[in-house]
Structures are given as C-alpha cells and as structure tokens.
Design brief:
242 residues, ATP-binding cassette domain-containing protein, four-stranded antiparallel beta sheet, six-stranded mixed beta sheet, Rossmann fold, 8 helices, alpha/beta
C-alpha cells in the first residue's frame, strides 16, 4: 500500500527573543502513513506532538526536513516548501485539522460554519443544508444553538462543532489534535463512531490523544515522542488494530 504521507528528518525550533534563546520542539522526526491508516502519537505535554501536526498543516514552517504528501490535485508535494496557494487548496479539499480549540469568524452561526465547509466540497445549498442538519444532530448539538454564534457555546459544544466542521468534508488526510479533550463519554463515543466510519471510507488519520483508552482498537500504529524525538519500540512498530 502506498504512503500518503512521509515525514523525513523534520525539525522545528522556536526563538525566545526576550531570552535570546532557541527551543527545539521536534528534532529529526521521521514518520509515515499509508492510505487508510489511523496512526497515533502519544507523549507528555510539551513533548512536541502538536508541533508535528501544525508543521503538516503548515501552521508552523519547519526549520528543516521534508513532509511529502501524495496529493490528488498536485501529485507528490513537499508541504514544508509548498506555496501558500497550494496549501490553501489542500486545506480546502484534501487535508482537515481538528483542534480542541475553535477559531472562527465572528457573527458566523454554527449552522453556517458547517454548511460552508460542505459547500466548499462542491455540494449545492439544498444538499448542504440536509448534510448540516444530519451532522449537527449526530453530535447532539442542541437545535436551539444552530443559529447562534459559537462564542456563546460551552467548551464541549465548541469542540463538537469543530469536529463536525472538519469531518463533514470527508478529507483524504485528517489531523486530530486532542479532539476529545473536553468531551464527556457519550460525546467521545460519537467521535469514535465517526472516526470508524471515516476509516471505512478510506480517510487517513494522524491523531494525538491523551486518552489512551480512546485509541484502543482504532490505531494501526503508534509513535511515542519524548523531548521532540520518537521512541520507537518493537511494540509500537508492530502495533496493529485487531
């Protein structure tokens, strides 16, 4: 099976200007995903997990290394050096990102956020309306909130909306950055159902979860990171989903 993503020698540092000091977040990271896999990254807070995802999504620009993505639109492309226009296109049509935080334009309702995401994939307004309702109902977001602004939502409600907005596009590659952080068990279960559905449809996923129990029976492989570098044990190399 072909690799959809291959990370080679990825390094990212941050400069603390007030201290005239550089902090290395990740160092010489190598990672690969085959099409349809769900790969997990584990490690303590501050170990560099989120930095890897943000480099893939190009929220961060790496210092060095390559992030080769096998795109339907562009062919094999290095996300570390790709143009901003290409990155915008990939985010719109191929690569999704789910964070535990929701950053949206003000005065945009929950319904509009999900509908806009669906329309970006080419659906007309009527079918986008129906898909929006199904997704909001799936995550049990109270219908009284659908036409409200997310700024008024609780943390859990914002997170459910964030997940719905990303997953409704059925991206080829989905990056999950602690998406269940503030969810109750019932909501986590709904996220797991949708992840399994996306896996069955062929979506490739790279996820960070502190909730290791949530990852059980989902991940094909697992990488453990410490101080910016992976610790690959034989168990992690050979870890496969039952």
């Amino acid at each position: 099976m072909e690799n959809i993503l291959s990370i080679e020698q990825l390094t990212k540092s941050f400069t603390l200007h007030n201290l005239n000091k550089q902090i290395r977040a990740i160092d010489q990271v190598n990672l690969f995903l085959k099409e349809g896999e769900f790969v997990g990254i584990t490690g303590k807070s501050g170990s560099g997990k989120s930095t890897i995802l943000k480099c893939i999504y190009r929220t961060y620009l790496p210092q060095s290394g390559s992030i080769w993505y096998n795109s339907q639109r562009f062919g094999r492309i290095d996300l570390a050096t790709a143009s901003e226009i290409a990155i915008i296109e990939l985010r719109k049509y191929e690569i999704g990102y789910v964070s535990q935080f929701l950053n949206v334009m003000p005065r945009t309702t929950a319904r509009e956020l999900v509908k806009e995401a669906i329309e970006e994939t080419g659906h007309d307004s009527e079918s986008a309306d129906l898909k929006t309702i199904r997704m909001l109902e799936h995550f049990e977001l109270d219908s009284s909130l659908w036409d409200s602004y997310p700024a008024t939502f609780s943390g859990g409600e914002k997170l459910r909306l964030n997940i719905a907005r990303a997953m409704v596009k059925r991206p080829r590659l989905l990056l999950l950055d602690e998406p269940t952080a503030s969810l109750d068990e019932a909501s986590k279960s709904k996220v797991k159902v949708l992840i399994q559905q996306l896996m069955n449809e062929g979506t490739t996923m790279l996820g960070i979860f502190h909730d290791l129990e949530f990852m059980q029976n989902l991940c094909n492989r697992e990488y453990n990171i410490k101080d910016g570098s992976f610790l690959l044990t034989e168990k992690q190399k050979n870890h496969t989903r039952n």
